[in-house]
Amino acid sequence: MASIINASSTGAGGIIQTADASGTLELQASSGLVNMNNVTGAMANPVGTTAQRPSSPVNGMQRYNTTTSALECYINGGWVTVQENSYTVEYVVVAGGGGVGTRRHGGGGGGGGYRSSVIGESSGGGGSAEFLLSLIPLTPYTVTIGAGGAGAPNAGGSNSNTGASNGGNSVFGSITSIGGGY
Known about the structure:
By secondary structure, the protein is mostly beta strands. It folds into three domains: 1-37, no CATH class; 54-83, no CATH class; 84-182, no CATH class. The chain is built from no helices and 14 strands. The strands form five sheets. Strands 4-5-6-7 form a four-stranded mixed β-sheet, with no helix packed on it. The chain has a three-stranded mixed β-sheet with strand order 2-1-3, with no helix packed on it. Strands 12-13-14 form a three-stranded antiparallel β-sheet, with no helix packed on it. The radius of gyration is 30 Å and the shape is rod-shaped.
């Protein structure tokens, strides 16, 4: 049971109150609508840690989770974080290739890593497309374009690859593609 405040369209006073000792307050309206049209302040949500979530949640519950620092709602059997205007994007992140070794030690440098979330494309190493990335407006994201590695100077049959270098990593937010070796 619950303590109830009922705005009824029937009855003498229009407001019916029923009290109990459960500690739960229920607002009811015979129209099915409880509104705050003429209120200019704000409504405070319940606040607590993940461990303090209700033990028997029902769809539609909402609260502020201090463990995750996020507003959350209980939807279809689970707690879901409410994000402000996030956008889901596809990406392709290609790293720089490695530098070329000397004629005697090497040939071409290794290709840079390749990561993709584009449906139908493979990601690095022939793996399937990765998950899409969720981005939030006005949030800074790191973007680094990995340069190709330097090649070794051709010293006419030198036995050294001195000067050759790996390609640089490319980064987009939390996605990093590793540069190729020389």
